[in-house]
Amino acid sequence: MSDHSDASGGSGDERGESAGRMKQRHRRELKELEAKIAAMKRAAGKEKGKKKEIEEQAKKMEAELKKRHESEMNEATAREEKRKQEEEEAAMRAEAERLAAAGPTRNQRRKQKKEEHGREHAAELAALAEQMRSLPSAASTERQQLSALLDSLVLSVYDI
Predict the structure, then answer these.
(1) How far apart are CA 44 and CA 46, in angstroms?
(2) Does residue 100 or residue 33 have the better pLDDT?
(3) Among 40, 37, 36, 14, which residue's Cα sits nearest to residue 26?
(4) Contact, 32 vs 11, CB < 8 A?
């Protein structure tokens, strides 16, 4: 007997179903199956062979229904998790786009300004160092002045 379509309760779109509605439908389907099994048992009467066959069939139908309900719940849970994850990703993308459109934050501007000031200061120091290299040293200036003075006195400096 293939009464799977009867046990499903004729539910059309299970994908758009909320978890609460799915649980209600599952309870209703289980109740309908139990009623159907009870009716089959009453119809069998007191025939032992028929009763045993109906018991086996009932266990099989209950197992199929439970298996189907479990798979539907697992699918619904997976869909819900995927939907939540997609919502979180969309929210993160929207926040990133909002931040990008808003431009740099106060801290970012402050950091950029500090870095720019540091680069300017380094350039000034490099230029000053270059100037210092091109200027004569104090020792060489002193030697030149001493030489000029000693030349006027016709004297010279000797290293010892």
Answers:
(1) 6
(2) 33
(3) 14
(4) no
Instruction: With beta carbons less than 8 A apart as the criterion, state whether 59 and 41 touch.
Output: no
Crossing angle between the packed helical segments 19-44 and 48-102, to the nearest 10 degrees = 170
Residue 69: other Cβ atoms inside 10 A: 18
Q: What does the alpha-carbon distance between residue 51 and residue 59 come to, in Å, rounded to a whole number?
A: 12
Structure tokens at 121: 């200061």
Q: Given CA atoms 143, 148, 149, 153 in this order, what sign does their dihedral have?
A: positive
| Torsion (CA) 30, 33, 37, 38 in degrees, nearest 10 | 70
Q: What confidence score (pLDDT) does residue 15 get?
A: 60
pTM (2 d.p.): 0.50
